[in-house]
Amino acid sequence: MKLFGDSLDFVSIASSDDAQALTESLLYSGPSPAGITARGTPLSRDLALSLLRRRLGRIQGSIQEEFERGELPGLFAGRRLGALMDGLIAAIHRYSLAVAGSEAEEEPFALAATGGYGRGVLAPFSDIDLLFVSRAPLNPGGQRAVEFMLYLLWDLGLKVGHATRSVAECIEEAHKDATVQTALLEARFLSGDAAIFEEFETAFGAARREWGIGQFFHAKRAERQARHKRYGDSPYLVEPHIKEGRGGLRDLQAMYWFASYAFGTQKMWQLVGSDSPGGGLLTADEARAFRRAWSFLWTVRFHLHYTTGRAEERLTFDLQPVVGARMGYTRHGKQEGVERFMKHFFLTARDVVRLSRLLEPAIERATLGPPALQPTPGAEDTAAGITLADGRALIAPGFDVAADSAVMLRLVRIARDRGWELHPLAHRQLIRNARFAVPLREDPAAGELFLELLTGHASAHWMRVLNEVGFLSRFIPDWARIVGLMQFDTYHVYTVEEHTIEAIGVLNTLDGGGLEDVAPVASELIGQVQSRRALYVATLLHDIAKGRGGDHSELGAAIATEVCPRLGLSPEETETVSWLVLNHLLISQVAFKRDIDDPKTILDLAEVVQSPERLRLLLLLTVADMRAVGPKVWNGWKATLLRELYWRVAEVLAGGLSVPERDVRVARAKQAVEALLSDWPREAVESFLRAGYPGYWLSFDAATHARHAALMREAEATAAPLTVRTRVLDSRAVTEVTVFAADHPGLFSQIAGALALGGASIVDARIHTMTNGMALDTFWVQDATGGMLEAPHRLSRLGVLIEGALTGRIRLAEEIRKVRREPSRLRAVTVPPRVLLDNHASTSHSVIEVNARDRPGLLHDVTAAISEQGLQIASAHITTYGVRAVDVFYVKDVFGLKVENERKLASLRNAILGALSPRVEAEDAAPVVRAVF
């Protein structure tokens, strides 16, 4: 039996006696006279099906029991399951021939396993791929036998892929379709006429030699590229597809296909040693790495299938902790078991990528001949140890990398500067020699080379190359600790090191002017920064301390002070990098969690930043960090907040604004709106100017004040109890909802609930009670995807829902419960609820920050609890990070003062936690409460 993969010699535990006994049971239905050994009449189909179901159940049950007891790793379980299925399917084949009668035997055929089943390794819910191969097209009897067998397999609940072809048809189809060629490459005889299968193997082998391996390489690479595009071109996606994704089983199988096609080998160990095909394409360590990756991924796959009860190949958030626990990963120190499991997974995926880059070009060269070397255009390239082959760069054959390991960095720099691709053999060279990066850590010339690569054009591409070949982990030891590290949340799309490289890519795009439409300020500033090297190094190191416990910003700042001098940065640059790493979350936290219309917010941030250059650097790092998290994190609203915050702080740092007294600013705001309302009757203008308290005049620009004036005048003229206006703001990617109604406790909560029912997610809000007792509340909302609500029917529905909520016609609590829940795959991600109370962030308000798991109606419940405590909400700032909601409220008590009484604060904490707890998952950690005074 032909088996693929690397392991100790595998002995099939499927008893041939059991298989023979099953066959005899199917073919003999009654007693024979004494001395007669000929078979009797085959069992009836119903009886045979019952017998086969029991046998299949025993096979599947025994494999699952032994696997889950830990007696069989996934690869061995897959091989054992494949061997046991061989016996079952061979018995079914013989039974089908017997039922079809003598006509089926007149035109013999062979039954073969193909595809994954052909490798002799079968997952619990995988397809059974079968080939019925004959010398000539099957006669009616043979066709009946095949049809009978297939229906029997389907009735057993097996998923069967099948083809019925003559030998000539097999060759013809394989020539036209590389997928068929691959399936036939793994064909394995099961039952029937063995001579026919040998004829097929001989013909197919001759055809492959005639076609050559070049066409096979070309087809499989195109197939792989399309597959990666569909399932993810990065091996570090946090919900990986273990079979089709990059670094998954299919990539590993491709290496077996190439080796089998080229040399007829079935195990990677056959490529080790100077006398092996190709002259020793792998070392023993590399062959062991293949075996480890193959075994680990098969074990994960078995757990996935058994956990879900289906052929599930995607490791989603809800399955990761389950599979990790089943595989024995527990919490160690600060790292959860699921994070340890996923790190092992990503390191394995990285190894698969490296092994592919290592072996594939070696097989190609061994079969197609060595590459045609070409002299490089510049003599300095040759002197640097670099040459060309097929128009692509590699280290010159025979160059002693151990003696001059900086050649690895020179290779990348020259390829970048000349616009050359790296030759596949260059990746093999870099992987094999990555260990020689260690001596370069203290080499000033190497540090300068690395900085040139990091700060040059397309640096993300070259950093990704250096990461994939293992150079970065050896050149910067702290980098190795974040490789494969994931955060178990739904906010981050990539592992930490891949996110970092993506952030460098954002800087590259800003440099090239590719983000002028979505990040105009950052696109302008990138050309103004004087500390370019510090910016890129800070981006490289901003998450370097994640996974260590504690504040990764503080720990990362300390690491930066050690790494930067080794790279050749000056003391001034080192201090700047360390400061940027320490504060890389500052701007986003202020922009999304604080009221940027509050002068204290701007002054506090300016005091920390202190210089315009640092502000520019910090904004650029923030933009790069946010856009690198994932495609859905950045939107127009967040860009607007960052832009406005930047300009306000920049104005303070430039000395152009000292934040004038409150009364002066209010007076200026009134003068501006008066100018816009110059054609109104004076009495109407005076009425509007008396309507707003100081906080209202400081919250909006003159144009918005003028719109509010028109809205209020119309409402008063018509005696309307409720007015709702919506406005789509394309520049900010939000929809503005303005509500003018009689003020009462809980108004914010009711409106928030109505907006939730309308599919609107609040990102910011301003709440104002006017001097006449009316409330003028403004909400900025987006849809569930972070886009604007702009369809007329959706905007109209918002108004209807708000009116229904305020009149009591809609029972909000009941309706919110009916809103569809989140996908089940996200429920495994826990978010411990947390409440922070801060009386220092604002001079006039207490600030409440609520961290909790996001859900429909969360804002309604929290604001209702705040209102029930007798507090007035002046503004709300809403941010979501995956399934985590961070809601910040600026509040006052009924007297317009901060909440500072300890008993009142304790009551407020308990009320908010009570609003969170009814929907909190049972497995969530206990709430965390912290106050800042």
Automatic annotation (TrEMBL):
Domain ACT: 736-824, 847-927
Family assignment from sequence similarity: Belongs to the GlnD family.
Function: Modifies, by uridylylation and deuridylylation, the PII regulatory proteins (GlnB and homologs), in response to the nitrogen status of the cell that GlnD senses through the glutamine level. Under low glutamine levels, catalyzes the conversion of the PII proteins and UTP to PII-UMP and PPi, while under higher glutamine levels, GlnD hydrolyzes PII-UMP to PII and UMP (deuridylylation). Thus, controls uridylylation state and activity of the PII proteins, and plays an important role in the regulation of nitrogen metabolism.
One GO molecular-function entry: [protein-PII] uridylyltransferase activity
Annotated EC: 2.7.7.59, 3.1.4.-
PROSITE patterns: ACT, HD
Entry domain remark: Has four distinct domains: an N-terminal nucleotidyltransferase (NT) domain responsible for UTase activity, a central HD domain that encodes UR activity, and two C-terminal ACT domains that seem to have a role in glutamine sensing.
Cofactor annotation: Mg(2+)
Gene3D superfamilies assigned to the protein according to its UniProt record, in alphabetical order: 3.30.70.260, cca-adding enzyme, domain 2
Activity regulation summary: Uridylyltransferase (UTase) activity is inhibited by glutamine, while glutamine activates uridylyl-removing (UR) activity.
Keyword Hydrolase assigned: yes
Pfam family, one: GlnD_UR_UTase
Record keyword Protease present: no
Protein name (Swiss-Prot/TrEMBL): Bifunctional uridylyltransferase/uridylyl-removing enzyme
CDD domains, alphabetized: ACT_ACR-UUR-like_2, ACT_UUR-like_1, HDc, NT_GlnE_GlnD_like
Organism annotation: Roseomonas elaeocarpi
Limits of the HD domain: 496-618
